[in-house]
């Protein structure tokens, strides 16, 4: 049963979670001057993990723009005298915003909205500006990065509105739900060692995620919070395209010096991020974790609380239990292994991941894999350390339901 392993539920994809770590000094000065700011899947969600030093400053971030007060008596004066975008606009003039909340987070909520002229439906994420965890510079950075991203697998920015109290981000509406919800649904119903997602579907989703990450990295953007909650299906169709959302922790990075701010979400955060010295390859580690979760229904690095999860990530030791992985291919496990490398220099790049045999096999017109590529022996479990020579093979005793391996049958270690 895939759902027997504890999997603490991270935050909802719809949360804005505006924890920002890169504020330029002028923005901070302006703010200071003007401010008068599976224990199963029903356990409390771990929060996005972030620290807030000033080591990743953005020199091109717009400053807060003082404007003439145009707020009601009920509005807070300290928020009304400052603008993130430099212009107040009433979203209700252009869009009808449905009062029904599609999702909520620590700093905002998401609703459906309809263009009053065209009738087109969109999503509207509303972020309260006076939330103490919402940093103006970081919020401005998210808006700029989202506007810059133009890729079919990245949610598109449509418009931005600001009033005295809120920033409203209008984006594509994805009606198919989160990848996280599909994982939970399938892991709770899977049995007999079958994968949570079949490999054809999993590889197709992985391919779309990787093409989006390739686009981001080519444009010097690191997402830093790739996780199933931030991957939405555009429609409810079986073969729906995906969209990556939430650029709240994303930033520009030129590779000249490592990033040092610890940001991310438990389970998906890379060990090099926890070491405070990392680059864009942190996104590829997260992809490896997602691939593992999609095929098994549970994360490779787990623990009863965030601290234990981080410790497990730092150790980098994980398993492919035979009961859950016996129906998977060696190529799928090799794909995961080559992404879950503690040493980022040994981790696959996004281009290498896109050209991995597992991805190529399932995203081209190649004939389906033969059964010879599937694990025939259910009595072997491999425990991964980061060095292949340090891997441990656990041989379980034979039984009528678990036959002894046939001579010459390839084990997990053949390609690992």
Average of the residue pLDDT scores: 76
Give the class-level CATH name of the largest domain: Mainly Alpha
Structural class of the secondary elements? Answer: alpha+beta
- The total count of strands amounts to 16
Strand content: 15-25%
Q: Helicity, in percent?
A: 25-40%
Low-confidence stretches: 1-81, 366-382, 384-416
CATH homology group of the largest domain: Transferase(Phosphotransferase) domain 1
Radius of gyration based on Cα positions: 23 Å
For the sheet with most strands, the description reads: 5 strands, antiparallel
Beginning-to-end CA distance, first to last residue: 25 Å
Q: If you consult CATH, what is the topology of the largest domain?
A: Transferase(Phosphotransferase), domain 1
Strand order of the largest sheet: 4-5-6-8-7
- Return the domain count: 2
Q: Tell me the series of helices and strands, N- to C-terminal.
A: HEEHEEEEHEEHHEEEEEHHHEHHHHEE
Shape: globular
The assigned CATH architecture of the largest domain is Orthogonal Bundle
């Amino acid at each position: 049963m895939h759902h027997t392993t504890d999997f603490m539920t991270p935050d909802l994809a719809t949360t804005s979670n505006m924890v920002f770590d890169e504020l330029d000094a002028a923005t901070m000065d302006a703010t200071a001057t003007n401010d008068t700011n599976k224990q199963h899947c029903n356990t409390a969600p771990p929060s996005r993990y972030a620290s807030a030093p000033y080591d990743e400053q953005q020199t091109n971030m717009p400053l807060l723009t003082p404007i003439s007060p145009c707020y009601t008596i009920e509005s807070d004066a300290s928020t009304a005298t400052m603008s993130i975008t430099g212009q107040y606009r009433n979203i209700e003039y252009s869009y009808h915003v449905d009062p029904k909340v599609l999702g909520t987070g620590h700093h905002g909520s998401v609703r459906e909205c309809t263009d009053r002229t065209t009738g087109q439906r969109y999503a509207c994420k509303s972020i309260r500006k006076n939330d103490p965890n919402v940093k103006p510079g970081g919020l401005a950075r998210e808006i700029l990065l989202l506007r810059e991203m133009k890729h079919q697998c990245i949610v598109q920015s449509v418009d931005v509105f600001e009033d005295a109290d809120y920033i409203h981000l209008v984006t594509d509406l994805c009606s198919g739900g989160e990848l996280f919800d599909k994982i939970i649904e399938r892991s709770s119903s899977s049995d007999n060692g079958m994968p949570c997602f079949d490999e054809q579907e999993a590889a197709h989703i992985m391919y779309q995620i990787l093409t989006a990450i390739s686009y981001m990295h080519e444009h010097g953007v690191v997402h830093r919070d790739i996780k199933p909650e931030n991957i939405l299906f555009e429609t409810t169709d079986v073969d729906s395209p995906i969209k990556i959302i939430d650029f709240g922790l994303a930033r520009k990075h030129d590779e000249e010096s490592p990033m040092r701010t610890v940001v991310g979400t438990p389970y998906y955060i890379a060990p090099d991020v926890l070491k405070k010295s990392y680059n864009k390859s942190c996104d590829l580690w997260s992809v490896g974790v997602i691939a593992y979760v999609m095929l098994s229904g549970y994360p490779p690095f787990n623990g009863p609380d965030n601290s234990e999860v981080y410790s497990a990530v730092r150790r980098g030791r994980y398993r492919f239990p035979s009961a859950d992985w016996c129906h998977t291919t060696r190529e799928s496990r090799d794909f995961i292994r080559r992404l879950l490398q503690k040493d980022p220099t040994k981790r696959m790049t996004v281009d290498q991941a896109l050209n991995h045999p597992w991805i190529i096999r399932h995203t081209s017109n190649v004939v389906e894999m033969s059964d010879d590529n599937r694990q025939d022996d259910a009595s072997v479990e491999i425990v991964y350390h980061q060095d292949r020579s340090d891997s441990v093979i656990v041989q379980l005793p034979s039984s009528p339901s678990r036959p002894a391996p046939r001579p010459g049958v390839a084990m997990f270690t053949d390609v690992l």
